[in-house]
Write a structure and sequence with these properties.
Elements (H helix, E strand, L loop, with lengths): L26 H9 L7 E3 L11 E14 L3 H10 L6 E4 L15 E4 L13 E13 L1 H15 L22 E4 L7 H4 L1 H8 L8
Antiparallel strand pairs: 1-2, 2-5, 3-5, 3-6, 4-6
Helix pairs in contact: 3-5
């Protein structure tokens, strides 16, 4: 699996018929699909929608953050997220990640890409995505508020991609593996996002 070429027409990335397939899966199945290179949208779309775009989004079941060229590996991100009660469901390296820069973690539930068969040494260049699978549907407005807070406040030191605020954004999968952190869908009501984000403002720092 490889990331689609930039030579593909931009319009092809907008047409839902080229991507949108709806299916009911659990967290582990979702992670496996990402490990095999499948693409996903955080949002689902209005009935009859032909193209991507915020105006065509109906609701959101997934929150994803993209880190391109991060100074620390995803394991450090997960450690920090767990320390403030905001552990993601899983993470994976992107197509752009140099395979020589990462090593296969020993712990957690790991889904490998079928073509994955190497282990490299850690270096300071990491490109990965972290994903929360929500138990409850949230509105497009709530999604925007949460992701903005995550990028600009809670996880600001990790320098996430601001494009993640768009619920119709395409998240390409991986050609390495996905690591499951939590198999249970994230409960916004019990997790207490507001409390967690407030705690992140009060002296919590990321690992370096």
């Amino acid at each position: 699996k490889t990331k689609p070429s930039k030579n593909i027409g931009a319009d092809e990335f907008q047409l839902l018929e080229n991507y949108a397939t709806y299916t009911k899966i659990n967290v582990r199945q979702f992670a496996q699909l990402c490990a095999e290179g499948h693409t996903f949208f955080p949002a689902y779309f209005k009935e009859g929608a032909k193209r991507r775009g915020i105006s065509n989004c109906e609701g959101v079941w997934v929150i994803g953050l993209d880190f391109d060229g991060a100074a620390v590996p995803p394991e450090d991100f997960v450690d920090y997220a767990e320390s403030i009660g905001l552990a993601p469901n899983f993470y994976y390296y992107t197509f752009s990640q140099d395979k020589d820069d990462i090593e296969l973690p020993e712990e957690r539930y790991i889904h490998k890409c079928k073509n994955y068969g190497w282990v490299g040494e850690l270096k300071q260049s990491f490109r990965y995505r972290v994903v929360w699978v929500l138990e409850e549907e949230i509105s497009i407005k709530t999604f925007g508020e949460i992701v903005t807070t995550l990028i600009e406040d809670t996880f600001k030191d990790f320098k996430g991609d601001a494009a993640c605020k768009d619920p119709s954004r395409l998240f390409f999968g991986s050609n390495t593996y996905a690591v499951v952190v939590n198999t249970e869908p994230t409960k916004l009501s019990t997790l207490g996002w507001a409390k967690v984000m407030e705690a992140s403002k009060q002296g919590k720092t990321t690992k370096t």
